[in-house]
Amino acid sequence: MLNANNQxxxxxxxxxxxxxxxxxxxxxxxVLAAKNRDTIKKNMSALPAYTFLLGLIxxxxxxxxxxxxxxxxxxxxxxxxxxxxxxxxxxLFDKMFPDWFAGISFAAIAxxxxxxxxxxSIAAANLFTRNVYKEYLKRDASPAQEASVSKIxxxxxxxxxxxxxxxxxxxxxxxxxxxxxxxxxxxxPAVAIGVFTRWLHPWALSSGLVAGLAVGIGxxxxxxxxxxxxxxxxxxxxxxxxxxxxxxxxxxxxxVALLANLLVTLVLTVILRxxxxxxxxxxxxxxxxxxxRPAEAxxxxxxxxxx
Length: 307
Known about the structure:
The protein is mostly helical. It is built from 13 helices and 4 strands. The strands form 2 sheets. It has a two-stranded antiparallel sheet with strand order 1-2. Strands 3-4 form a two-stranded antiparallel ribbon. Residues 297-307 have low confidence and may be disordered.
């Protein structure tokens, strides 16, 4: 339950997570690969219902705890002697439902994990192919070669993810997710805000990004986790007392780092514009923001008539 010390952390975490959600490469990949604007709008309109269903799934965890004594539901204990709490819901299905239904539930869990994993691996493969392979290793790569490298990279990422789950502490995945959220949030000014305005100077955006990353990583390094004995990178809830304040209240690291990012970006933009620093060439055009697929743009009236 929330108390007076972690209410601020929860609020800033919710806000920071919402801002970071569509900054992840796999989110951008799915948006850019959409058929048209209507497809994105339909999916966005369904998000509240999807979020509500996630809440219902979370209630299964409470159900498992309540059924613990009556049905013998308990998480699987790993080789390290610690209970893996991620297994509590599968164990609930195993103990309370027939075998055939438990099998269907396990299959649904596996498929549900594969869908986001596939999108993430595709996004990672695209990033590597376009920004590393084509940029530094083979500038004259053909589309077919790019596709081949992307497929291999996607497979490597999938195998690597499975290896992390099998051979590393599952807590590492949780900590990495928290750290990743802080880091990806620092791209907000350059990636998101920079799309809506050209006023921010490119050099200022880059400097703000570096400042946000430095502040975020520095704060994450100071956070311990007594539950697993970690002295550093123990979460994303930063106690204000670590910064010298006489308070045990906590705040989300990503939110503080983003404020530092924005402050550096705004101040340097003003300074650089006054100094007349060159801004480089902006290759985007108005048409880039209004483009549709040719087949759909060619016959809007016919589509309306059919509707």
